[in-house]
Amino acid sequence: MAAEPSTLRVQRSSGVLHLTLNRPEQRNAMSLQMVLELRSALAEAERDGHTRALVLRGAGGHFCAGGDIRDMAAARARPAAEGEDPIAQVSHAFGALCAAFAATPLALVTVLEGTVMGGGFGLACVSDVAIASDSVQFRLPETSLGVVPAQIAPFLVERLGYSEAKRLAVCGARLGASEALAIRLVHEVHGADALDAALARVLNDILRCAPGAIAATKRLLARARFTAGASLVDEAASVFSRAVQGPEGIEGTSAFLQKRSPSWAPQ
Predict the structure, then answer these.
(1) Which are the contacts of 72, defined by CB distance < 8 A and separation ≥ 6?
(2) Helix or strand or coil: residue 51?
(3) Which of 192, 217, 161 is nearest to 63 (CA)?
(4) Smallest Cα–Cα separation from 203: which of 217, 193, 188, 192?
(5) Helix (H, G, I), strand (E, B) or coil at 182
(6) 28 exposed, middle or buried (CB, 10 Å; 0-12, 13-18, 19+)?
(7) Is 31 exposed, middle or buried, given 0-12, 13-18 or 19+ CB atoms closer than 10 A?
(8) Burial 184-205 (b: 16+ CB within 10 A, else e)
(9) Taking the complete model, does pTM exceed 0.85, yes or no?
(10) Strand (E) positions, the chain?
(11) DSSP-derived secondary structure letter, 67
């Protein structure tokens, strides 16, 4: 990134980029500055050639309390130029953030504690692995406030299915850890003192997998959500052939036959 971020704590360790939302006094409400810094951090990680996994979490016991009300108020007060809608522009920025993290070829893990709302809810939905504290509280209050969970709606449907997403939205849902686990919004629930150990285990599993294979698998799975399996046979065969004959496939199969760890795995 060009400048040190003001709303994030950034830590890099053994191919993992840890991004901590760092506005604890606002329960990590997502300002436009935070959106820009998250987008910049993601873009840098995708092109640096070293980062294999991303971890998102929040400082101060909360993940993210949604969008910063002050940004919305400022947008509402700003005179709109011809053809411009300041509120829509703010909303677009939040939606584009979730879409960018949804599309990343890197493995994405969220560690969810305390309040999870708005854009934070969206980031939880697009993560590959979601680890939650047993005290987490998901909220989807938009309809109770007379507004719409517009930008996270597609990711709700993708994560939970149409029926469950509708139920949550029309009820202005509040979810604790056990219900979030039951509907597979999150994949694991742990006590606060066990979160770091759970994260370390998940990251170790991810790092034992080849980064190129993870990226190709994520792309194919994304295609499979909207495409009949029979129509993907040729594409899947091509993807598999390239992988087997590529450097990762050669190294991985050789390591298996030689009963050793592949070069990308933690030693």
Answers:
(1) 87, 90
(2) coil
(3) 192
(4) 188
(5) helix
(6) buried
(7) middle
(8) ebbbbbbeeeebeebbeebbee
(9) yes
(10) 8-13, 16-21, 53-58, 64-65, 107-112, 115-117, 129-133, 137-139, 174-175, 188-190
(11) B
Average pLDDT over residues 68-75: 76
Residue found by looking up tokens 């990226």 in the block: 215
Question: For residues 119 and 91, what is the distance between their CA atoms, to the nearest angstrom?
Answer: 10
Which structure tokens are listed for 29?
């409400």
Tokens of 245: 């004959």
User: 65 phi and psi, to 5 degrees?
Assistant: -90, 25
8 Å CB contact between 121 and 165: no
DSSP annotation of 61: G
Whole-angstrom distance, CA of residue 198 vs CA of residue 201: 5
Tokens of 15: 């191919």
Q: What does the pLDDT look like over 116-144, one tens digit per residue?
A: 998 899 999 999 999 999 999 999 999 99
**Who's near 109: CB < 8 A, 6+ residues apart?**
53, 54, 55, 56, 127, 128, 129, 130, 131, 199, 202, 203, 206
